C-alpha cells in the first residue's frame, strides 16, 4: 500500500470513527467501538472502498497509533468530537507535558489557557518533539510546557490514551510556560 493511499484511508477512518460516524450510517458503541465489517460495508456503500488488509496496514503503520483493533472491532484512540467514553482511568502525569500550537493562538491561550475546543479533552504530548510535530500541522510550531505535576497536585485529572497522548479537561493559564520570543 503506497503512502498516499495509507494517508487517505487513515483520514477517512479518523473522520468517521472520531467525528461523523452517522455520515455513513455507523453507530459507535458507548466506548467508540464499531464492527470492522460494518465499517468496511458502510464505507463501500458511500463510495469509499478499502479492504481489511488496508485497514490493518493503516492501524499498524500509523506513527501516531490513532486506532485500536480488538478482535473484530475498531475505534479511534482519542480525539473524538462525538460522545464516547474511552474508559481511561486517571493516571499520574510526568512533571511536565507539552502542547504544540501556532503563534496566532497564543493571545487567547495566555488569557484562557488550553481548552478542548470541539473535542472532549485537551491533548498533551509527553515530549517536545511530538508537540512540535502536532503544532507544525497548522504552521510554524510553538511548544508550550504544561506544569502537569502542579496541576495534578491541585486536583486536575489526567488520563493517558492507548497511544500515549495525555488528556485533561482544561489547562488553566497559570500552569503554562511560554517559550521566550525575541
Automatic annotation (TrEMBL):
Its EC number is 2.7.1.-. It is an enzyme of class 2 (transferase). It comes from the Bacteria. InterPro entries: Ptrans_KptA/Tpt1, RNA_2'-PTrans_C, RNA_2'-PTrans_KptA, RNA_2'-PTrans_N. SUPFAM superfamilies: ADP-ribosylation. The keyword Transferase applies. Keywords: NAD, Transferase. GO terms for molecular function: transferase activity. Pfam families: PTS_2-RNA (PF01885). Belongs to the KptA/TPT1 family. Removes the 2'-phosphate from RNA via an intermediate in which the phosphate is ADP-ribosylated by NAD followed by a presumed transesterification to release the RNA and generate ADP-ribose 1''-2''-cyclic phosphate (APPR>P). May function as an ADP-ribosylase. NCBIfam families: PRK00819.1-4. HAMAP family: KptA (MF_00299). This is Probable RNA 2'-phosphotransferase. It comes from Streptomyces heilongjiangensis.
Amino acid at each position: 500500500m503506497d503512502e498516499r493511499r495509507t494517508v487517505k484511508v487513515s483520514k477517512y477512518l479518523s473522520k468517521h470513527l472520531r467525528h461523523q460516524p452517522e455520515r455513513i450510517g455507523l453507530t459507535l458503541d458507548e466506548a467508540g467501538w464499531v464492527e470492522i465489517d460494518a465499517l468496511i460495508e458502510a464505507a463501500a456503500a458511500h463510495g469509499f472502498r478499502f479492504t481489511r488488509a488496508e485497514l490493518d496496514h493503516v492501524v499498524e503503520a500509523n506513527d501516531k497509533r490513532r486506532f485500536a483493533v480488538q478482535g473484530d472491532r475498531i475505534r479511534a484512540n482519542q480525539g473524538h468530537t462525538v460522545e464516547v467514553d474511552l474508559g481511561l482511568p486517571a493516571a499520574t502525569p510526568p512533571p511536565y507535558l507539552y502542547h504544540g500550537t501556532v503563534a496566532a493562538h497564543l493571545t487567547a491561550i495566555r488569557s484562557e489557557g488550553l481548552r478542548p475546543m470541539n473535542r472532549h479533552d485537551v491533548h498533551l504530548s509527553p515530549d517536545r518533539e511530538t508537540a512540535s510535530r502536532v503544532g507544525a500541522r497548522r504552521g510554524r510550531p510553538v511548544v508550550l510546557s504544561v506544569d502537569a505535576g502542579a496541576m495534578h497536585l491541585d486536583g486536575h485529572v489526567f488520563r493517558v490514551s492507548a497511544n500515549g497522548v495525555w488528556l485533561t479537561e482544561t489547562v488553566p493559564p497559570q500552569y503554562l510556560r511560554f517559550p521566550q520570543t525575541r
